[in-house]
Design goal:
This protein has five helices and 16 strands. The strands form five sheets. The chain has a six-stranded antiparallel sheet with strand order 3-12-7-14-4-16. The protein is globular and about 40 Å long. It has one domain: Sandwich (Jelly Rolls). The chain is of the alpha+beta class. The longest helix has 18 residues. The two termini are about 25 Å apart. Bound molecules: 2-oxoglutaric acid. The site of 2-oxoglutaric acid has 11 residues, from β7, β13 and β14.
C-alpha cells in the first residue's frame, strides 16, 4: 500500500563544505533530518577519458570536461516515447497531487522505471563518461505543470549528497519537449570544476530552501532544450536550475543518477533506503547492493524507499 505522501521536497543545505551541514526534507510539511553531512567529501571533478569513449565523440567528451554537460542525444523514438509518456502519466495520476515531484527513487520498485534506467542506449553514453561499471542509485520525475509557481533554484547536486568521491553523472530524459518557454533546465557552463559555491536562502517560490544567488555572475546560462525522447548528461557539481513554467505546456523530465562504484555513501542515514541497480558491469568495491528487476509496476502497491537525489 502506498503510504508516503510527498507534497514538495525541500533540501536545506549549508553554505560551505568546510562546515558541518544538516540536510533535511519536508514531507507533508513535516521536517525529516537526513543526517549531518560529512566534512570530508571529495567533490573534485574527474574528467572523462576520450580514449575509452565508444559512442561519444572526442568533441563530446571535450565539451563535457570543459562545460560540465553534453547534449542532446536521441534515445527513444516517437512510438517508444508515447508509451513512456503514457506510463508516467498513469503513475502521476495514480499518485494524484503528489505525482509531479513524488515519483522519487522508485527505480528498483517499478519495472518500467528499472527498464529505462538499464536501457543500453542510455548506458552506452553514461559508460563513456564514468566507465564500464555503472550504478543507478536514484531517479526522479520532475513534472512542471503549465502556469506553475515554483522554480528550481541554481544549485550543485553533489553538494547536497553524501557520496564521495563525486562521480555521478545525471541523465535528464525529456518526457515532453523542453525549451526556454516551458522552463527547461539551464546550466551555468564550467561551474562543475569550481568547487562548492556559496548559497543563500531562497524565497517561497523555490523548491529548495537554499540556492546559489546571482549564479549568472559565474557565466551565462545555457538552456538545455531537448525534444521528447532526447537526453542530456551533466556532472554532479555543475550549477543548474529551472525557472517557473509560465507557459501553457507541461514540462516533464526523468532524472537518472549514475555513478561509478568507486563512489561511496558516506552517511548511511542520508542513504537509508537507497535501492541501487548495478546497471552494467560489476561492483568490485562492494559498496553497492544490486536490486534485480522488480515484478511490480503498480505504484500504489509499493512506496518510495526514501527521498534522495531529488535536486
Ligand atoms: O528538472 C529540473 O528542472 C531540475 C532538475 C535537476 O535539478 C537535476 O536534474 O539535477
Amino acid at each position: 500500500m502506498h503510504n508516503v505522501k510527498i507534497i514538495h521536497v525541500f533540501v536545506k543545505i549549508g553554505s560551505a563544505l568546510a562546515k558541518p551541514t544538516w540536510l533535511s526534507v519536508l514531507v507533508n510539511g513535516e521536517e525529516y533530518g537526513m543526517g549531518l553531512a560529512s566534512t570530508s567529501l571529495d567533490l573534485r571533478f574527474q574528467p572523462a577519458v576520450a580514449a575509452r569513449a565508444r559512442r561519444l565523440s572526442v568533441s563530446d567528451i571535450d565539451h563535457y570536461n570543459r562545460q560540465g554537460f553534453v547534449q542532446p542525444f536521441d534515445v527513444f523514438g516517437a512510438d517508444e516515447m508515447a508509451r513512456i509518456r503514457a506510463y508516467f502519466d498513469k503513475l502521476m495520476s495514480d499518485l494524484g497531487p503528489d505525482g509531479a515531484y513524488g515519483i522519487n527513487c522508485y527505480q528498483a520498485r517499478m519495472a518500467g522505471i528499472w527498464d529505462i534506467a538499464t536501457d543500453s542506449r542510455i548506458l552506452d553514453l553514461v559508460q563513456d563518461i564514468i566507465g564500464p561499471d555503472i550504478i543507478c542509485w536514484a531517479s526522479a520525475i520532475l513534472s512542471k505543470k503549465p502556469e506553475g509557481s515554483r522554480r528550481v533554484p541554481w544549485h550543485q547536486d553533489a553538494s547536497f549528497w553524501q557520496l564521495s568521491p563525486a562521480r555521478t553523472v545525471t541523465v535528464w530524459l525529456a518526457i515532453d519537449d523542453a525549451d526556454a518557454e516551458n522552463a527547461a533546465m539551464c546550466f551555468i557552463p564550467g561551474t562543475h570544476a569550481q568547487g562548492v559555491l556559496e548559497t543563500a536562502d531562497m524565497g517561497a517560490d523555490s523548491v529548495f530552501h537554499k540556492g546559489i544567488a546571482d549564479a549568472e555572475r559565474y557565466g551565462a546560462p545555457f538552456v538545455n532544450s531537448l525534444k521528447a525522447g532526447q537526453i542530456s548528461l551533466h556532472a554532479d557539481m555543475l550549477v543548474h536550475g529551472s525557472d517557473i513554467n509560465r507557459s501553457n505546456r507541461r514540462r516533464c523530465g526523468l532524472t537518472l543518477r549514475y555513478c561509478s562504484p568507486e563512489s561511496q555513501i558516506t552517511d548511511p542515514d542520508w542513504a537509508k533506503g537507497v535501492e541501487a541497480i548495478i546497471a552494467r558491469g560489476s561492483d568490485p568495491s562492494g559498496h553497492w547492493r544490486h536490486h534485480p528487476r522488480p515484478e511490480n509496476d503498480d505504484i500504489l502497491a509499493t512506496s518510495s524507499p526514501h527521498v534522495v537525489g531529488n535536486n
